[in-house]
Amino acid sequence: MTIFSFRRVATLCVLTAGTGLAFQASNSNSNSLDVEEKFRTTIHGFRRSSRAISTISLIVLDYKYSLYGVVANSEEYRLKLSEVHLRSAKRLLKLCQVNKGFYVKAGQFAASLRQTPNEYSSILSSLQDQAVPCPFKDIKDVIISNLGSDISTMFLSLDEQPIAAASIAQVHRAILKSNQEVAIKVQYPGLMQHVKIDTTVMSFLSRTISWLFPDYRFEWLASEFEKTILLELDFLQEARNAERTAENFKNNNLVKIPRVYWEFTTRQVLTMEFCEGHKVDDIEFMKQSGIDPSKVAKALVEVFAEMVFVHGFLHGDPHPGNILVSLDNLNGFTLVLLDHGIYKQLDEEFRLHYCQLWKAMITLDTNKILQLGEWFGVPKYSKYFPLIFTGRSFDSTSALGMGMSYEERRNLKQELKLLKMEDISSFMESLPSDFLAVLRTDGLLRSITRKLGVPQRLRILTYAKFALHGSSPKLNPATDPIVKVAYFRLKTSLSYLHLRLFLVGAEALSSFQKFMNFTCSLCRRYYHAMKSMHRCFHSRRYLRLLAFGRTYNTCFST
Questions:
Q1: What is the CA radius of gyration of the chain?
Q2: What is the crossing angle of helices 191-212 and 35-66, to 10°?
């Protein structure tokens, strides 16, 4: 590492520490905290910032030193890069575990992104179940200060032991005076102050890392996370999201959104209907209850496909803890959607273009994919869209959902070797924020359906079906003419049927080509085997004649 780089790293440490302290000082005039609390928050924030600075600086130095002088894209480079990824992921995991709160949420966010290296996602995914509950006394104070009444005047009972604890809040079971069983989500005290500090430090760190290493640009990641965390801290917004989603799925008997109790809901306290259930990836529970996991997966994919392609209003954190499977006498099961804090309102133009992209990827309409890549701002990388979403290369001849042939994988591997970190950073930075949200949700959904043992083909075909539905004009059966509604529904159904027939034809052609290739290969092997046997036969015959001739000559010569 050059002296200039060392100076840059030193500057990073000093300036970031100064940023954390300056931010604390700028918040010291707040009337909401007493002097002692301000002092504690300042010291605590400085410690958290210092840990973040030292950890990130160590990671930066590790990357710089370990990869210095190694030929890029070589086998040695890839091995060393993987080793540094693993060491860095473990350091970040420790940082998240010690700093807690915002850092745990940031680690979960990074682990959920499909573009995150496997070493990071596998290590940081353990943060999903590592939240430590806050003492009930502190939680009780938050409830009283927000709802303005004593616990006994609002609830018949309130369990002191939380039923769930996450990175920003924990949930307690309670019974209202009306005998309604509810779940109360309570934000951790002082969290908003810490988040303001931590987001400032993270933003500064991401900009400085980009300055140190121009190929590693992560400002987009910090910016996206800052937007989501600030929205998630507003429980009133979460309540509105829940009610809007309930309205969107009011005609779907397989989906349940817990009811919001507005009189017991504020920015820091959310009271909702209590719903029994098990995590959506609890296969053992499903087997014991006689529920088919594939049906659960199908219903889950349909719900999120409808969110993306039809409503354009997307739940941004669908990990297994936020989706429950509840027993239902009518349908067998019901999906209960929890935690509506992170939602993405997709731009209408983006939604329509995304529907078109899926139709193009299913039929491998390369011209349309390239055209849409221009619109999404990534013309150079649009050929990778089919690979990202459907597992097929841009010019694949394989059947949908069946992966790629050996030759296709080999060619793609050679092509991907030429990509640099700069290309990945450029790709992610150029994508619209809506695309990033869809990518993240799709990645989380894939991991769940994979665990439930559902083939990729089901997810792809479901997406295609709802992409066609989302491309049609939005009509309201209650207000629009019945004939018009029926016409567009029929048109959508016929379009989907046409698409399925196209896929059947393409798959039949692919199977026929594979059969012909296999037959030709078998014939070639048979031909070469017979040719070899023929040569061998003639060779042996020649040797026998030669031996006979020698014997004959010997006999007559004597």
A1: 31
A2: 30
Residues 88, 92, 97, 98, CA torsion sign: positive
pLDDT of residue 41: 63
**What confidence score (pLDDT) does residue 434 get?**
93
Strand, helix or coil at 439?
helix
Which pair of structure tokens corresponds to residue 92?
């970040």
Looking at residue 70, the DSSP 8-state letter turns out to be P
The enclosing H or E element of 184 equals strand 181-187
Instruction: Give a three-class secondary structure readout of 257-295.
Output: CCCECHHHCCCCEEEEECCCCEECCCHHHHHHHCCCHHH
| Dihedral in degrees, nearest 10, Cα atoms 106, 109, 114, 118 | 50
Cβ atoms of residues 340 and 322 within 8 Å: no
Coil, helix or strand at residue 313: strand
Q: Which of 317, 339, 434, 442 is catalytic?
A: 317
Q: What digits encode the pLDDT tens for the residues 488-544?
A: 556 666 665 666 665 565 555 555 555 666 677 677 776 666 666 656 655 655 556
Spatial strand order of the sheet with 255-256 comes to: 255-256, 332-337, 323-328, 278-279
Q: Distance between CA 190 and CA 208 in Å, rounded? A: 28
CA 248 vs CA 234, 306, 313, 355: distances in Å:
22, 9, 9, 19
pLDDT on residue 449:
92
Residue 317 annotated in active site: yes
**Contact of 239 with 316, CB cutoff 8 Å:** no
